[in-house]
Amino acid sequence: MTTSEIQLRPAQAEILTYRQGRMAVSAVPGSGKTLTLSLLAATLIADAKIDAAPGQQIQIVAHMNSGADNFRRKIREHLERMKLQPAGYDIRTLHSLDLEIVRLAEGGGNRTSAAVLAVDPGARYRRSGDGCGF
Q: Of 6, 84, 5, nearest to 43 (Cα)?
């Protein structure tokens, strides 16, 4: 499935003209965000706008695992249809992105040694492992 085979609404077609910088897309459920953004990611990779060799990648953040899984599957399918390797993109949930930021802020140690912020039911925040609330 390519852009010529998909009937896109004007707002979706506009998103596919994107070529660089940051972009955020907010729309109601069922509006075609996943289809549009997965097609955009595959197109940017296919057009060599992303160079996966030095570690460049498109970062997509979804709210839930199911959304992240759906993005992974759709981008992979688009790339396979384009006869390309599934590389040059990273799909995360908000929580996995948060964890990665904390891990990197703590010096890039492995995930088991990084301090992790946890939310308790009383809406108090504490650092796991040190027992101090703040």
A: 84
Q: Apex CA 65: angle with CA 56 and CA 75, to 5°? A: 45
Contact 53, 22 (CB under 8 A): no
Can you give the residue ranges of every domain in the chain? 3-94
Q: Which long-range contacts (CB under 8 A, 24 or more apart) does 127-131 make?
A: none
Q: State how far the Cα of 78 lies from the Cα of 83, in Å rounded to an integer.
A: 9
pTM of this structure: 0.69
Give the pLDDT of the chain (134 residues) as one tens digit per residue.
Answer: 455 577 888 988 888 888 877 878 888 888 888 999 999 999 988 988 777 777 778 888 888 999 999 999 999 999 999 999 888 898 999 999 888 888 888 776 554 433 444 444 444 444 444 444 43
**48: Cα separation from own chain's centroid:** 19
Integer CA distances (angstroms), 3 to 7, 17, 60, 85, 89, in order: 8, 11, 20, 19, 19
